[in-house]
Prior knowledge:
The structure holds two protein chains of two kinds. Chain A is an alpha/beta fold. In chain A, 34% of the residues lie in helices and 22% in strands. Chain A contains 20 helices and 26 strands. In chain B, the strands form two sheets. A 13-stranded mixed sheet of chain B has the order 5-1-6-8-9-10-11-12-13-14-17-16-15. In chain B, strand 16 and strand 17 (264-270) form a beta hairpin. The model of chain B has no long low-confidence stretch (mean pLDDT 94). Chain A binds chain B through residues 73-77, 80, 83, 85-87, 91-92, 327-329, and chain B through 17, 40, 42-45, 135-139.
Amino acid sequence: MLIKLTGGKIYDPAHGINGKVKNIYIRDGKIIQPPKGRMKVDKEYILNGKIVMAGAIDLHTHIGGGKVNLARTLMTHEHRTDPHPQTTLKRSGSGHATPDTLSAGYRYAEMGYTTCFEPALLPSNARQSHMEMADTPMLDTGGYALLGSDDFLLKMLADNADQSAINDYVAWTLHASQCIGIKVVNPGGINAFKFNQRSLDVDEDNQYYNISPRDIIRSLSRAIHELGVPHPLHVHCSNLGVPGNFESTLATMDAAEGHPIHLTHIQFHSYGTEGERKFSSAAAQIAEAVNRQKHISMDVGQILFGQTATISGDSMKQYTNHQHAHPKKWICMDIECDAGCGIVPFRYRDKDFVNALQWAIGLELFLLADDPWRIFLTTDHPNGAPFTSYPHLIRLLMDRSFRNDMLAHINPLAKQHTILDTLDREYSLYEIAIMTRAAPAKILGLKDRGHLAKNALADITVYDPQDNIEAMFEKPLYVFKSGELIVEKGQLKKIVRGKTQVVRPDYDISIEKKLNRYFNRYHTMKLSNFKISDDEMAEGIGSPVKVHACKDRIA
Amino acid sequence: MSALTLELKNPPRWRIDMRSLTPHQLATKTNKEIAALPLYYGNRKIQVGDLFKISGRDKNNLQILSDSPKLDYIGAENTLGNITVEGMAGAYAGTEMKAGTLVIIGDAGDYTAAGLVHGNITIHGNTGNFLGAALVGERQGMRGGNIIVKGNAGDRVADRQRRGTIIIHGNCGDYCAARMIAGSVAVLGKAGNNAGYNMKRGSLLFKQKPASIPVTFNHNGEIDLPFIRLFFQHLQTIDKDLPLLSKKINLHRYLGDLACGGLGEILVMSK
């Protein structure tokens, strides 16, 4: 079947196309070259004046895994009061900040997103996380395996193990847990919390293993680089939310020693200690450092005002944050002795000094970062705000007068402490297309999406231009997933299922001998049950894998 | 003016969420508008008029005619007026109600008056479990107001109750006033096992000794408490049908739950 999208304005930053009018041809779920000669077009969409972009990619959103489920059970009020009815197409669901899997998939597709990544997939929970993501319709998914506070790695580092052995373990973890990247959360800190340390700075030692977050960042970022994994080490830095933590964020950048790293929800890590409240913006220092160091990328984790739930593997910092819980209930727990989990419901208020400044810091970071290829649009769903507020966030970035109107309403003291009103920058559609499409595809090594040239998957979002940017991004005119029309005028048309995106770096299988001994002695399951096979992904879990290429392994 | 009346046309197949049909939300609407309001029926959304016949114009007095136990959340979060249910109510009747009265002539389901904030709720039939308790995931049960049950109540009456009064003329099940923070419960019939389990403060009055009281309660002996006559006077202002306490009686007093501070009390009128 040949589908033709005629006359749309194309925004395809991967090929430098900025609003040029072009036709797109789709066959068998992929974009093809304009056919030569006369060909019968089966379905034509006339898109004169409409905006055409690739399907959006969210590289950091908590949509699957044990902690999301725990958050759902904790946030009973929003599930009781926010039911989503069944329709002829959709199944019923509930929730806003912690929606059920079905609602999350539907809503993402209705906003023009086609691929999403769960950033904290604990290898020992991988099966359940993949099952949940398989249950999230409309989207291609993937996960970043969580390492850095697991005893096996910490023991290797404490014993000064050879880097190539660490590389083997990292690669094995990617294979076993069917992931596309590695994430480290409060490096070594979750483990240190179990030995009663309540904070851990970048150069402070974990009391049991005598290794510091710096050691962990160094060896893991090196491992990712040497294995040829496209996505750099995904780092949730030390000292989340602590005033003055920008210094440990800068130290984390240094710790990578030039290897590529991605700093996630950096807004929570850009706080200074100036001013009468000893809490200030350090967005300028962080943005300057990232602008200068081309091997570093970041996503923002913007907060937006309202009720949400913060969910994180960082049990150390979530334990500290529990005193700010709203409503007053929270969960902190250990998971399989390999990582932690902390859930604290949170209400960000625009009249609160700290919350208002957090909001401003996130926007400052967006506006001070020079290179849209290295900064990504996220709210760290649901930690900063639910993903449903992305259109609002895009309007804040693209519409300066709207931003200043919002700024007028925040806490007056916070307003004095931000330089937001002096920042004139407005993002263009082209830059938004970079941030939400081309750049995530590039940094994740997804060659088959995020652009609109030949051989790309026909994941395409078409917007109807409007004066109100928020309304435009809220309800795309058409969304195509692998060439099928799934959304029309913001309404679902067809339910589709996605695939799990993975990478498979080479490794030495003999690492399993050592791992097998470790599993038999310490773990709650056998190594053979820990690993998830491709067959299980396809048949048991219901989300077949799609393997993306790695570069060659160096060491 | 006759009361605004909602009459079920047919026995419903699925459960109906009645949350949107309370006097405070209907006050300014015409009957035609009410018929067009969205209503959750099972997991779908339909219109009020599809299920109910609507008559009467007095929006301050809402009458619901129901012979089905599937009408959930009747009067939930209501802030004004009177609601009368001629027949049965489903689960969650009067949850988090802020003001007004709710009278249920027949039986009510689980979680009746859970999280009640203020107002009066009377059930002439029986109720299910978790009467006046905390809604799932909430940290407090009823926070004020009065509940009168003429029939029996199920298990976990007043679970996590914070304030307010519950009077049960019939029996109640196990774990009456479990995890109670404060408040008053009077049961005139029999009570099940583990009454007052993990209660912090508050008063429980039982006509007969419950089937069991946790071992973490201390028996203070048989005493004449002048307080009990004041307490009865107070209860009678809430419930005129309460029998008068005519003669002087000695009460068995149990203090507990010592596992949770031990400032609560169980008062038993006869052995």
